[in-house]
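Please annotate this fold before class:
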Amino acid sequence: HRPYQLILMDLRMPNMDGFEAMRVLKGEMNCSVPIVALTAETGSDVRERCREAGFHEFLQKPVKTAVLKNILYQFGAALDTK
């Protein structure tokens, strides 16, 4: 049983960016949880880098609620409906 169903990974974080975190999770930790990239950056080059790095999906901030819900449903993540 996986403790997490989905990881939302910001690409800009202190100490380690999302691309490096992805390499550690997938490579060193053999993580099988789907990882969705979050970024405020624009441009097809960022989306392409995310795809090449192995991210399962790409979301551009600010993320609309409906878009986030679709991603959660897409990856089977539980939603709290309260």
Summary: Residues 37 and 58 are 5 Å apart (CA to CA). The first strand starts at residue 7 and ends at 10.
